[in-house]
Please model this.
Amino acid sequence: MKIGILGAGQLGRMLGLAGYPLDFDFVFLDPAPEACAAPLGDHLHAPYDDEAALAELCRRCDVVTYEFENVPAAAARFVSQRKPLLPGEAALVTGQDRLSEKKLFDQLGIPVPRYLPVNTREALELAVKTVGLPAVLKTRRLGYDGKGQAVLRTPDDVAPAWDRLGRQPLILEAFVPFEREVSCLAVRSRGGELAFYPLVENVHREGIIRTATPQRGDPLQREGEDYARRVVESLDYVGVLAFEFFVSGGRLLANEIAPRVHNSGHWSIEGAVCSQFENHLRAITGLPLGSTALRGHSTMVNFIGGVPALAAMAQIPGVHVHLYGKTPKPSRKLGHATVCADGAAELRAALDRLNALVAASEA
Ligand SMILES: Nc1ncnc2c1ncn2[C@@H]1O[C@H](COP(=O)(O)OP(=O)(O)O)[C@@H](O)[C@H]1O
Ligand SMILES: [Mg+2]
Model:
């Protein structure tokens, strides 16, 4: 089976690693010369809208997927006219635009924070009055890791936020004083079979996910699955989808979806019977889905901007290190480690050691 992947970052790399034992071959398309998935397959080094490169990708593959949600819609259309693109164009296009996502949630009866689209300075003033403060002003497109956002706490914050972000379509949403953040990772096969991983509790700092911990028996599991089911069924989705939520007043409020494997599912490589990466590949290639059940307790910790010494991490029991082979830069995701243990106390002890190393590497 030959699989084409639009994007060759760390998610592509982990898809490649999951596909290797299954004897899948990969062709990646990514404009970055040092794309970190490149060692896992062939790398077409071209812009996403390069039709000759897209045609070549289609020629060489049985099925095409993406690990980057900002692939241009026209490129997705071009591919889907030639080969199965899974998940499809509708999921990609919806997931690229925060307003389309929110409209979909509204249509499906999924609760969201109050929001309004903002295209002009006057519209921003009106939105601030309607939504209230504090609020978060976000670019509709191309935001990631908290980029393209401004928190408005007082009326004095409005003008600088507009100066920084105002040249593009925006959305203003109410600031949610959440108790916690969770994500629901769903996977749907070509035949419509559905599976859900246990809800994951995610801790963000400066808009970037730092840790992800799969929950055991989370009281919101059914609610998360219900909302994720509505989304994947309405989009006729195939593959893994991540749905991020705020927990507020003990209920879920939708934040955003990512139509791809997700950082909050990296723990599943060691912490689930079948990882999000293998399940995504199973789904798009028409195989039966693997079990999403937990194997023991686990937590994933990201390495952002710096990586602890491997020799020090390797002394921690139950640690599994993944380095992405990227050049270090501030705020860049360079790798992660998942700590696995049989019990909660053992997990806590190992995590304390890992977190101390991570804090030192970021300082
Ligand atoms: N309306 C909000 N209220 C409170 N916190 C928010 C809000 N929107 C975003 N955040 C915080 O910023 C993080 C990143 O925002 P998000 O909308 O998920 O964008 P992205 O992950 O694409 O950068 C969230 O996980 C959350 O911690
Ligand atoms: Mg997010």
